[in-house]
Amino acid sequence: MKYFQLFFVFFRVGILGELAYRVNFFVQLFQSLVELGTALLGLAVVFSYTNTLGGWHPDDVLALVGVYFFVGGIIGLVIQPGMGKLIESVRDGTLDFTLAKPEDAQLLVSIQRIEIWKFIDIVLGLGVLAAALIRLGEHVGGREALSFIVMMLSGAVILYSFWLVLATLSFWFVRVENILVIFQSVYEAGRWPISLYPGWMRFALTFIIPIAFVTTVPAEALTGRLSSETLFGAVALAALLFTISRLVWRMGLRQYSGTSA
Amino acid sequence: MRGFAELYLQQFKTTFASMVQYRASLIIWMISHVLEPVVYLIVWSAVAATEGGSVGNFTPHEFAAYFIVLMLVNHVTYTWIMYEFEYRVREGTFSAALLKPVHPIHSDIADNISSKLVTLPLMLLIALGLVPLFHPQLAPPLWAITAAIPALVLAFGVRFLLEWTLAQSAFWVTRVGAINQVYFVLVLFLSGQIAPLTLFPSPVQLLATILPFRWMIGFPVELLLGRLSPVQAVEGLGVQLVWLMIGFALFRIVWRAGIRVYSAVGA
Fold it and tell me: How many domains does one find in chain A?
């Protein structure tokens, strides 16, 4: 409960900071709409030539695009800004201030910076997802909805742990922000079903940069094509990665020497 | 003339040094330049495979050829001036460039060409690496390959002049992000990066033919794939020349107006 309160405090700070630059809202809204429009037009062109893409129907891919935007929004809202700040503060030593606070430092660094305008992407993603759900209609039952939520949550945990481990590497190697930029450019591949890609790419997008777990897998759950092995596998992987990221974080902290120490 | 040669040589040294310094951002650029065409390659090959082996006159292997060639052509004609110009104007670093006795576009051309001299061999290697993975199929006639050389040079010229002109909107607008994004979307659809232009409805094809976008990327790709007749190739080169002249005129007009409104921050 306290964690949610903390999150909302940071969220309020984010709002207060950005309200001075209200034009940014419209800039972000415009850019997000253009991006979404591009994605949908691309789909329209592809599906004007076929009605199934590797077994996925137009509405299924629409749901995938919704998930893609929603997750992209979450990454941009809290994960990427927080991890970017972490790397920065390890380099210039301002992490001292965070460590001095009486809350769990991992939690604090994870929510310390909120880019509120990215909420637009989250809302747009949910909108597309809702549209896809209406079109999919009765194909989505309680079982699909439940496994979708479970997959979204474990996907979020996998993604968060992945980013945290990468960002924590900054305790040993000072310049790692480029790895995070690479993630952003590879994320685009998640707009299409991962099953389309050849084996080596599928492997890379699942296990090296775990994009499949936040885009294709939840969309598979929603459209009822998820096997129970994948479901349990994803949950187990989420638990495992979360534990690993916690361990790496602790090791990293021990490595950290601060500004004046 | 000798002055220019020295200038370009010096810029090559500077660019090369800074590329060696910023290897990581280089790799990031390469990844996004490779990944996007490869994704569309895979998507369209899958479509062709499900639709009985060919879509709009393209088999999966021909799609592979299309997108690998597109990746190279896009890389050759690519510029990053629209990102750079905003920064220059906003931060006022452009003032220093104005003090030089030559037009600032020269150092940009030199910078672009020198960095491509380094990255293009890498891109060619990547393209070669993609061949065994996707088995592209193309057999362009010799004349088409010859014609593609001027087509590529003209495509680079048109794209460079137009993007340099558009980048100057930073003189009037402080935040050009939105303008840039609209432009990039137009390029994406109308230059053939999402799909070969022949797959689009005919109004879109017409639009792409009238506007400069096809002539910056799509045309050299179609030529290299051997999909154009000699007459179409000559016509295309002619249109490219016309766009080069329009681009040059626009560049001059906008530059004269823009340089008057430029005032560096803090000046």
Answer: 1
Report how many Cβ contacts below 8 Å link chain A to chain B: 75
State phi, psi for B154 to the nearest 5 degrees: -65, -40
Q: How remote is the C-alpha of A158 from its chain's centroid? A: 9
- The reply to whether residue A50 touches residue B56, judged by beta carbons under 8 angstroms, is no
Cβ contacts of A30 on chain B, cutoff 8 Å: 178, 181
Asked if B39 lies within 8 A of A192 by C-beta distance, the reply is yes
The predicted-structure confidence for A46-85, as pLDDT tens digits, reads as follows 999 998 888 899 999 999 999 999 999 999 888 888 888 8
Nearest to A188 among B27, B35, B199 (CB): B35
Which chain B residue's Cα is nearest to A188?
Answer: B36
pLDDT of A261 above 50: no
- Is A114 a member of any domain? yes
Cα–Cα distance for residue pair B222/B38, rounded to 1 Å: 17
Pull the structure tokens for residue A215: 């885009």
Question: Mean pLDDT, to the nearest integer, of A230-251?
Answer: 92
Q: Say if the Cβ atoms of A182 and B28 lie within 8 Å.
A: yes
Nearest CB partner across the interface for B200, out of A30, A45, A186:
A45
B267 within 8 A of B92, measured Cβ to Cβ? yes
Mean residue pLDDT of chain B comes to 88
Is A143 a member of any domain? yes
Q: Do B195 and A178 touch (CB under 8 A)?
A: no
Q: What percent of chain A has pLDDT over 70?
A: 97
Task: Please check whether residue A166 is in contact with residue A83, taking contact to mean a CB–CB distance below 8 angstroms.
Answer: yes
Kindly state the average pLDDT of the residues B53-80: 92
| Owning domain of residue A117 | 58-255
Tell me the per-residue pLDDT of B108-138, one tens digit each, with 9 for 90 and over: 888 888 888 888 999 999 999 999 999 998 8
Number of neighbours of residue B95 by Cβ within 10 angstroms? 16
| CA gap A44, B7 in Å, rounded | 48
- ipTM for the whole complex: 0.86
Chain B residues touching chain A at CB-CB below 8 Å: 24-25, 27-28, 31-32, 35-36, 39, 42-44, 46-47, 50-51, 55-56, 133, 175, 177-178, 181-182, 185, 188-189, 194-195, 199-200
Q: Are A181 and B133 an interchain contact pair (Cβ–Cβ within 8 Å)?
A: no
Test B50 with A178 for CB contact under 8 angstroms.
Answer: no
Q: Give the C-alpha separation, B39 to A190, whole Å.
A: 10
Q: Which of A113, A124, A106, A140 is nearest to A246 (CA)?
A: A106
3-state class (DSSP) for residue B234: helix
The confidence score (pLDDT) of residue A254 equals 85
Q: Considering the entire predicted model, what is its pTM?
A: 0.89
In angstroms, the CA B264 to CA B96 distance is 10
In a domain? residue A241: yes
Structural domain includes residue A25: no
